[in-house]
Design a protein that fits this description.
alpha/beta, five-stranded mixed beta sheet, 4 helices, about 20% strand
Length: about 120
């Protein structure tokens, strides 16, 4: 199940950019953050894939969603210019951003290579 994040939840669960200048992951397990908007067609195409992945990788990764319309400050902090944009946050290294509606096999590849998580 994907979880919606507000700025407050993001600061607590992912990265407190108000407190830290350097990246410091606050989570326990790797995560994907989907920056989206309700009106965005490609975002709607990716949503069910992310739901599937959240079930398939349950307990191994968290999948969060950030509504770019409601969380403008959070979107600005990460320089979100196009959606969908996904931030892949490994537990112990720098995050990587990917943009566009990626197919499931690409997302699984990134989960393996960037997040270092296998099914």
């Amino acid at each position: 199940m994907t979880e919606m994040l507000t700025k407050e939840a993001f600061l607590e669960k992912v990265f407190n950019f108000e407190k830290n200048k350097e990246w410091k992951f606050e989570g326990k397990i790797p995560c994907i953050i989907d920056f989206y908007a309700d009106w965005c067609q490609p975002c709607k195409m990716v949503a069910p894939i992310l739901e599937e992945l959240s079930e398939e990788y349950k307990g191994k990764i968290n999948i969060y969603k950030v509504d770019t319309e409601a969380e403008r400050e959070l979107s600005a902090a990460f320089g979100i210019r196009s959606i969908p944009s996904m931030l892949f946050c490994p537990a112990d290294s720098e995050p990587q951003m990917a943009t566009g509606a990626l197919p499931k096999n690409n997302l699984e590849q990134i989960i393996g290579e960037v997040l270092k998580v296998e099914k």
